[in-house]
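Q&A log
Question type: sequence-to-structure
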Amino acid sequence: MTTWRQLLATTAEVLGDEGEARWLCQEASGLEGAEWALGLDEPATQRAVVRLDAMVARRRSGEPLQYVLGHWAFRRLDLLVDRRVLIPRPETELVAEVALELAAGQPDPLVIADLGTGSGSIALALADELFPRPVTIWACEAAEAALDVARANLAGVGRAGTTVRMASGSWFDALPPELAGELALVVSNPPYLGEDDPAVEASVRDWEPATALFAGGDGLDALREIITGLPAWLRPGGALVCEIGADQGAAVSALAAGAGLVGREVRPDLAGLDRILVARRP
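Response status: OK
Response body:
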């Protein structure tokens, strides 16, 4: 029978990428870490080979690796991901990191809203890393299909997941009215790409959900709605942490100023590009 070492070599040759070949072989084998290294010369089962072949075919069709695997890491979590939700990215991990930083300066109890939660990545990472601090996190999502993914991911967070409430609706409409003026933190990774943006990679445009990517001609439609609605929902001193496009820093700062928010700053991502808007209610 064929060993995993042989399958790894063959898969790397077919894909032209040894790293991706290893990801797929590990997923098909169910082995990782030391078990993977020790099992390289073990024969693969017929079922595992069939599964590997199917994943390789999907990857060769252009489907993103994360969707082929069916899960992807986000901070300390391993999240279910498929075409219903965006692929978790390092830039969004930074959004969660900034949110945790600002949460540390907010008094208890904390009420946090994650607007457009998608896979639940930000909301669940905050729940995981803030636990057991007294906090309630509202994971809000208008797309029911995406909310189903977030609910599935919630089940994998353990006791920290008891602090999360899933809410269906568009932006602030998903929240109970009694939370107006009570939120310590609003976090969001909204759609912020222009519909005709030529810089959007084909693999992103073809495979990831358009409603989570595109927001009007200039990419600012969702950000306008969130920022202008924010003052009615934040408590005094509460903060917004929002992912933005690399060329939107000046525009979103102006929107925040127009909404009466203070302490405005645009923070860079790992590439030094504008990526995160931070602003506060006075």
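Response note: The chain has a mean pLDDT of 97.
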